[in-house]
Hints:
Blueprint: E1 4-15, E2 18-23, E3 34-39, E4 43-51, E5 54-58, H1 62-68, E6 75-82, E7 92-97, H2 101-113, E8 118-124, H3 133-139, E9 141-146, E10 153-154, E11 168-172, H4 175-184, E12 193-196, E13 226-228, H5 229-232, E14 240-242, E15 248-250
Parallel strand pairs: 7-8, 7-11, 8-9, 9-10, 11-12
Antiparallel strand pairs: 1-2, 1-6, 2-5, 3-4, 3-6, 4-5, 12-13, 14-15
Helix pairs in contact: 2-3
Amino acid sequence: MKPIDVRIVDIREETPSVRSFVFDRSFDFTPGQYVMVWIRGVDEVPMSLSDHNMITVQRVGDATSALFKLVTGDTVGIRGPYGRGFDIHDPLLIVAGGVGAAPLAPLAEAAHEMGCDVLTLLGARTRDELLFEHRFRDAGTIRIATDDGSAGFHGRVTDLLDEAADRYVCSCGPEPMMYALLSMLDESALDCAQFSLHRYIKCGLGICGACCTDPSGYRACTDGPVFYGSELAGSEFGRYRRGADGARISIA
Length: 252
């Protein structure tokens, strides 16, 4: 439960809005697991590991803004890794949107090392925001979609799903994108699809209940953050989440 100090040894500008922070310590983890990152004096927040010694972060709030102000040589506190990660099946379909590519890149690499046939559908708003394209390309076949058409298919990444029949599905990205993907799957395929659910995680240990989901009471911190489609069907997924105060926040 006590955070360990890790030192930032490299900071990589991945896209105009996303940075990777490389640490002087590596962690054994299953792709999809997360660590609790303590930015001293600001907050402790969950972040997926994008490699054994790296997190990849988009600046979206106070904690990530403070993290973006750190430089090489600075330290943060780390607890974990925690939670349930992704399963690996062959053939594998990865559907990644935006910074959701972060936990999926090590999954693609692990599956490739096991000899799996990996197909990645990678989406972003623009060409400049495509994250880890080279890692997915090295791990298998890749198809790209951008909202503005600046690279690959002009449209939503889920519009490429017809290229992916009979594959095990792993997805992470904006919740509306993942919900659209879930809605496109046959009921018989829901146990063959996994989604990384972003919820407000406070303790990471399954104690406080801040990340519980309706109506099942699944705790995103320990039962997830990766859930099977059958666990999310008919839940709050794609409709709302809860903030730090427990109030519902609509998902557009």
